[in-house]
Amino acid sequence: MHKKTFFIKVWGCQMNLYDADLIRDILASSGFMPVDNEEDANIILFQTCSVRESAERKIFNHISLLSRRKRQLKNGLIIGICGCMAQNYASSLNKKYPDIDIICGPNGYIDLPNLLETALSRGKFGVSTSEDKRVAYPVLNPSAIKGFQGYVAVMRGCDNFCSYCIVPHVRGREKSRPPEEIYTEIKGLVDNGVKDITLLGQNVNSYGKELKTDFASLLYLLNTIKGDFRLRFLTSHPKDAEEKLFHAMAECDKVCSYLHLPMQSGSNVILEKMNRKYTREKYFETIDLARRIVPDLTVSSDFIVGFPGETNDDFEKTCDAMRRVCYDSSFVFKYSPREGTDAARLPDDVPKEVKEERNRVLLALQEAISHDNNKTYLGKNLRILVEDKSKRNPERLFGRTENFKRVVFAGDASLIGRIVEVKINRVTALTLFGEQINV
Ligand code: SAH
Ligand code: SF4
Ligand code: F3S
Q1: Residue 133 domain flag
Q2: Are residue 56 and residue 190 in the same domain, yes or no?
């Protein structure tokens, strides 16, 4: 077995997908070799997430399993924990799991080659969990991305401190990347055949504050890159989403008509306790404005059920908001307290069964709304960027419309990565089905 083969297992948000590409790039340029199967690697890195207890529990289970494998193999397997749990638990992780060799937070990726070399040659444990805001990240080498979909971080960290959220604690303060650097990175990806690019930040609407620019200006700049590609972005914070952004979405032909605008709760009492800094009324105004300006806009959200003190009446207001906005899709999460956050000091007083019931009710409501929304596409011809073979039926392909609707149709795998036109003839809550139109 090659001494320096590595495999990265990724959990958590899209930022972790980008970070895993970055780590792969950093290690590959230092003589390490990425492999496609975990079994072929003698270095296994976990790119981890701390956002909810359930996410952490899964990852802890994997760490235990891997530690056991390392002891059984006795062949010097190297285990590295990277990303948000590395930052959150730092060296206490190593006390709990002595088989871990390195721990590397989101600001330490650049140190990984050294940490790994030391672990390999001297068997020494290494940690990198700097909180220094000045840390620089390398520009991603386009060849690090396989396929035609790519993620690009436009900023790091978060300054918002929503009371339930661990992200600002583990990712540090907000820092935007210079527009020229993002331009170069995306141009490189597009020239290498990437067709579907998602710009990432915890709150892209506050992009560029310290650089005296803003996110809308970045979109106009990136829209000048020549080539056949789509741009999407995640996540917008409702308190900062402004008219200028919606005009940029409408005017830039590369930017998709899709807005993920997490509402979290429909109750003003809960929104205040969450430190979200907007009211439900202000949120509705923002959505109405976006829909007036951006044609064919689809909208999605995140909701948390069972936040401390959430009453039936608060929850009803969330259901009402979901109906009012008529989202195309939503993620629903059961609240879990995160140590170190402000909300963790409040009693976690909504019983587990109530959280589960509210989760079920809200998901069912979203499903009904999504299904109704999708019916409006029946009989229409849509342009689809083909992503892959359908998992359920390999004879079929799936792709997405410009506004992020998932479409399944019968077609040949040679169409993957291409744009085709499909006529919709059946819909469910999650998917539109149709037939390719020959052009
Ligand atoms: N910056 C993004 C994403 C943050 S994490 C944003 O502001 O939307 C993704 C989602 O996880 C959040 O939108 C929230 O709905 C959920 N989440 C965060 N902390 C949580 C917690 N302690 N319990 C349950 N859900 C949580
Ligand atoms: Fe967390 Fe709020 Fe920042 Fe999103 S905006 S990452 S929910 S603190
Ligand atoms: Fe999780 Fe960190 Fe993303 S906590 S949601 S991986 S920023």
Answers
A1: no
A2: no
